[in-house]
Amino acid sequence: MSIMKLPLMIFFLLKLIFIALLSSAHADLLQTRRPDLIKSVDIIGSMHSQVAYARAKEHESSAESMDSSKSNSWHGPEIRRFRLGFIVNSFQNVSARVEGIFVPNDDKEFQMQFAYVDWSKYDFFNLRFGYDRAKFVFEENTSSGQILAIERSHLTNLSNIGYHNGLSFYGQISDLFDYNLAVLTNTSNRNPKGENPRYIHVVSFGLEFGDYLSSLDKLRLELDLVHNDQKTTGVTDRKRGIAFAQHFIVGSFDWRSEYIWTEGLDQNFLRGFYLQPAYSISDENQIVVRYESMNAQSIGGITTSSRYQNQIGELGGTYENGGERFDALYLGHNHYFSGHAHKLMLGLEFSRLRSEESRDVYGTTAMASWRFVF
Q: Where do the domains of the chain lie, and which CATH numbers do they carry?
């Protein structure tokens, strides 16, 4: 991050805080002016700070001597994300959510995260219109404030289809079944001149068995489907995909797993799974383990692994061309000061990116994260 950007970043951060304070101070005034419309105004946000050390070593998968291998490392702290927004609730079963994300260490230092309007009069049928995260891949749709590992799996990061403008219908039928049907655009907020919009169709079904099985505190099965009729890459390059997830809780034990298959517009197929057990050894401490494995049909179809491994300078062919097989093991410890609202996370991940036409890359990443949600 350039030192020349520091004053601008500080000014922008203070501006966001000022807006939040101003919104909070005028919430009562807003209700007084429109008592027939505004029910409440809630300020929401989060702050995630992280530090990491990543090291990668590249060598031939054959019998070549390790003495000729290359290695490099990266380390440093960062403000992973600062999010700030508000939710306006009305008496007419309508609510609006606007939330932005401020990422000081990225080139795009501010971007809109959510901007949508909800109509939710009935449990079984609701409408949402605006800019939102697509309901595809269970781990991607688990809030960053509530995921159990510091970073989502590499499989999830390569398979999710991101945020889009669109219309979704969602609801819950009894306590057993819920659904989400969405038609989204695969372009930016305004389509490029001369191009007709293309659409992404997303279908998600969930089954919750927790209330029907006395032996389990929670059991959820989720099936997500996506089809993209875009001919060229827009917001996402995924053409179609399927994701099947399982999440169950028994006492202090939490299990999450997911199988994901996607096809890219370039005919690159990705398929893989992750298994993530976690165990709470006390109310404040939790142990987390995650194993993931992924394959690509195309040569070089899997890019460099993890957020911090790809910060390392280029080591050679694999970092430039990618690989076809990826495996990773994550070991973590979470300490909860106040549930997910305030916690300290420690993690260590070992990964291997294998390539048929280049060298393999072995990565080790140590991470720590302090997260506060309000």
A: 46-79+137-373 (2.40.160.10)
